Structure formats: structure tokens, C-alpha cells
């Protein structure tokens, strides 16, 4: 008989935690996964290394989450980074702390995290059925009764919807969970790519393809007004810009593009120097190396691949001697070093986005339990909920925490 206490839809990080916790509390638990193997997205997270969480305090953690990090206060209160690390260690996975407060498995293998979670579920006698696509929820009198999958009926009074968002659809998160939620009467905050590379107009990015810049500041300008900034590492690609600070800023860029606003990214290549200090340094260098060719001087200020691009933009002859560079030309150099600007034309598609922004509105979910406010026995966990975060392990912790709380609440 296909009758269970709890059915979890989706075998990603949120679904696995929900299933494990519900089973720990004595429930008969079934996980239905439409892909042929569980945890496919977990395997590719952190470039295959799996940045499981961050060592930030709870209050600091919440600041990295949008649009409403406070919604997760209860979930984090029940199960947070320390609890996750303890769970992984109990299953034989040690973690190491890296820069930015990021925790990774010591083996640097996401497969070890997945195997540990699957081993935990096996020990708890959780049943996992792969290749099972859920077609509809069975709801009577605003309460969950079960679901239909692969033409079969499965009965349960508690269902956890942990189907992910729309990012990396090849791993199974193609937005089907939204249809099930809508069937239950839920609305949807329009899903859009988050932590996604961006495309730029012109050929500047292509000319610099493959160049990584460290310790630079990127500023986003929307309709000529400063809208956000971040400091750190970025990368030029054949289509535009990527790298940690660009991914972080992509949230405001994607939203602005959807509203048809004009978007530019300005890169400050010398953020440690203000305009005045930079001008003094340029003046000193040009004077000290008066006989040097301007092109050679640029190499001391810039990565080699940027030199021809700067020469073209500045319109200063490369063989000009440094002592001949006048004040007006020096100002052009200073401005370009502090404001290397690219016009944004688009963002990359869902298949290149690390996560999804949007989803089931938090106003329709009870934050203390992750249960639907509309249908009794329906719970949400992970990326399907309208919360997302910056890079650094925050998004996986959201999945683990909401999954754990949803699984915990099925026993109430």
C-alpha cells in the first residue's frame, strides 16, 4: 500500500533534510525524485566542491538574504550551520573553513556530502524512488491527502514541496514545483535568474576574455544613478562579466533589466587610492620614468591584456614618452582607472544561474513551521520559496534549514 506519514517531493538538499528529520521523529517517509539519481544539483554546487554553509552569526547571515531574510529566523533557530556541521561529521564528513567564512568538505568533493546524507536516510529507513514525476496533489477540504506520480496514487497527510527553482534545469529544477503550488492555490513571485553572469555591449569584454581582476570595486549604475557596489574578484568572458562580485550584483542588474532600465557596470581598478592620491601617483610615475614609452608605463599600472584596450580608449600614442603626457591626458588616464565602464545588455539564462530569485511568497508560508497558510499538511523547503542569498554557502544553508524545519513540523 502506497501510504506514508510524509512524502517529500524532490531529493535535493532541502528534500533530503526534510526526509531525514521526519524519519528521525518516527515517520514513515517517502522521497519522490523525477531524475534518475538524487542530489544532482548538490553535486555541482561550489564547482563540485560544495560550499555547505558559512560561519557568519545568525544576524549577519540574515543580512546576506533577500528579499526578506528575517522570514528564516525560525528555521535557522531550529537548525543552523553548527547543526549541519555536526550532522555531516556524524556521517563521517569533516569540513574545513576557508576565506569568507565558507565551509567545504575537507575532501573537496560534493559527492561525499551527498553520500553522507543518503547514508543517513538509509539508516533511518527512508524510501527514495527516483524517476517519479509528481503530476498532481490530492487536496480535500483544504488539507493534503496525497498525490499522484507516474500514474500511481500515494497517500500521506504531510507533503513537503522541495522541488527547487528554475536554475540549472538539467539537474531537474525546471519550475515544475511552482505548478503544484499553484494547484494548491498559492501565488508566485516571478522567478528570475540570480547569481548569474551578465552580458555587455560592444567588444571590450571580448577583448579582455579570460582576464581575472582581484581587489577591484564594481559599481552598478541604473539610469545614471548608483544602485550598488561590491569589492573583490571578477572575470571578463566572451559574453561579458562574471566572477563573485558580478554574481552578487546581478540581483539588482536582472531586476533593472526586466524593467527596461539602462544599466552600466563601472570597474574601479584602483579602489585603494582616491582621485587625489591616484593623480599624485600618476604624476610621480610619469616624472620618474620620463623617457619611458607610455605603453610600457601602462604595464606597471595594469594587467598586460588591458594595455591595448586602454591605449585605444585613451587615444594616447603608445610610443609617446611619459614626460610628454600632459595634464589633460593624465586626467583621462585617472578617470579610466577609476571608472572603466561597460554597458550591460542582458543577463545569462537560467541554465547558467546558480540559484533562482522569486518563488512562493513568504507571506503565504508559516515561518515557524514552513507549512502553507492555505493548505494543511503542505510544507515548503529550499529554493522554491521566495528567498535567495549571495554566494558563500548561504543558499545551501537556507535549503538545509528550511528542509529540516519542514520535516520537523510534519510531526507536530
Write a compact overview of the structure shown:
The chain is α+β, with helices and mostly antiparallel strands and 412 residues long.
Overview of this protein structure:
This protein is elongated. The model has no long low-confidence stretch (mean pLDDT 96). The chain is 33% helix and 26% strand. The protein is built from 14 helices and 21 strands. The chain is an alpha+beta fold.
How do the strands and helices of this protein lay out in sequence?
Layout (H helix, E strand, L loop, with lengths): L5 E4 L3 H12 L4 E5 L6 H5 L8 E2 L3 H6 L1 E2 L6 H6 L2 H10 L4 E4 L3 E4 L4 H14 L3 E4 L3 E7 L2 E7 L2 E4 L2 E4 L14 H8 L5 E6 L3 E3 L3 H4 L4 E11 L2 E12 L3 E3 L1 H15 L4 E6 L6 H14 L5 H8 L5 H8 L12 H12 L1 E8 L7 E5 L18 E3 L7 E2 L4 H16 L3
Parallel strand pairs: 1-2, 1-11, 2-7, 11-20
Antiparallel strand pairs: 3-6, 4-21, 5-6, 8-9, 9-10, 12-19, 13-16, 13-18, 14-15, 14-17, 15-16, 17-18
Helix pairs in contact: 1-6, 1-14, 10-13
Given the C-alpha coordinates, what overall shape results?
elongated
What fraction strand? 25-35%
The end-to-end span amounts to 24 Å
CATH architecture of the largest domain: 3-Layer(bba) Sandwich
Strand segment count: 21
Give me the CATH fold name of the largest domain: FAD/NAD(P)-binding domain
Percentage of helical residues?
25-40%
Biggest sheet overview: 6 strands, antiparallel, barrel
| Oligomeric state, counting identical vs distinct chains | single chain
List the main descriptive attributes of the protein structure presented here:
alpha+beta; six-stranded antiparallel β-barrel; elongated; 412 residues; 2 domains
Amino acid at each position: 500500500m502506497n501510504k506514508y506519514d510524509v512524502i517529500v517531493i524532490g531529493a535535493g538538499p532541502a528534500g533530503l533534510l526534510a526526509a531525514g528529520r521526519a524519519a528521525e521523529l518516527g515517520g514513515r517517509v517517502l522521497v519522490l525524485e523525477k531524475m534518475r539519481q538524487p542530489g544532482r544539483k548538490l553535486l555541482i554546487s561550489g564547482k563540485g566542491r560544495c560550499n555547505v554553509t558559512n560561519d557568519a552569526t545568525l544576524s549577519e547571515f540574515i543580512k546576506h538574504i533577500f528579499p526578506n531574510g528575517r522570514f528564516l529566523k525560525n528555521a535557522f533557530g531550529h537548525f543552523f550551520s553548527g547543526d549541519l556541521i555536526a550532522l555531516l561529521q556524524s556521517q563521517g564528513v569533516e569540513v574545513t573553513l576557508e576565506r569568507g567564512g565558507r565551509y567545504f568538505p575537507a575532501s573537496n568533493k560534493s559527492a561525499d556530502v551527498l553520500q553522507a546524507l543518503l547514508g543517513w536516510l538509509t539508516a533511518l529507513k527512508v524510501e527514495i524512488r527516483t524517476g517519479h514525476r509528481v503530476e498532481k496533489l490530492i487536496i480535500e477540504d483544504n488539507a493534503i491527502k496525497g498525490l499522484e506520480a507516474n500514474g500511481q496514487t500515494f497517500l500521506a497527510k504531510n507533503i513537503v514541496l522541495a522541488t527547487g527553482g528554475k536554475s540549472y534545469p538539467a539537474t531537474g529544477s525546471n519550475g515544475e514545483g511552482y505548478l503544484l503550488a499553484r494547484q494548491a492555490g498559492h501565488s508566485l513571485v516571478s522567478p528570475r535568474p540570480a547569481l548569474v553572469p551578465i552580458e555587455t555591449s560592444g567588444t571590450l569584454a571580448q577583448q579582455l576574455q579570460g582576464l581575472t581582476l582581484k581587489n577591484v570595486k564594481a559599481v552598478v549604475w541604473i539610469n545614471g544613478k548608483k544602485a550598488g557596489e561590491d569589492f573583490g574578484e571578477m572575470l571578463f568572458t566572451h559574453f561579458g562579466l562574471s566572477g563573485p562580485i558580478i554574481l552578487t550584483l546581478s540581483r539588482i542588474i536582472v531586476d533593472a533589466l526586466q524593467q527596461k532600465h539602462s544599466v552600466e557596470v563601472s570597474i574601479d581598478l584602483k579602489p585603494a587610492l582616491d582621485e587625489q592620491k591616484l593623480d599624485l601617483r600618476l604624476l610621480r610615475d610619469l616624472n620618474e620614468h620620463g623617457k619611458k614609452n607610455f605603453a610600457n608605463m601602462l604595464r606597471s599600472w595594469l594587467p598586460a591584456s588591458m594595455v591595448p584596450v586602454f591605449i585605444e580608449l585613451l587615444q594616447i600614442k603608445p610610443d609617446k614618452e611619459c614626460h610628454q603626457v600632459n595634464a589633460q591626458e593624465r586626467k583621462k588616464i585617472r578617470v579610466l582607472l577609476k571608472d572603466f565602464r561597460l554597458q550591460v545588455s542582458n543577463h545569462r539564462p537560467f541554465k547558467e544561474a546558480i540559484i533562482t530569485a522569486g518563488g512562493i511568497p513568504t507571506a503565504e508560508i508559516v515561518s515557524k513551521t514552513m507549512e502553507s497558510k492555505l493548505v494543511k499538511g503542505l510544507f515548503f523547503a529550499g529554493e522554491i520559496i521566495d528567498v535567495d542569498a549571495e554566494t558563500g554557502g548561504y543558499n545551501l544553508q537556507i535549503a538545509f534549514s528550511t528542509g529540516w524545519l519542514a520535516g520537523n513540523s510534519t510531526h507536530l
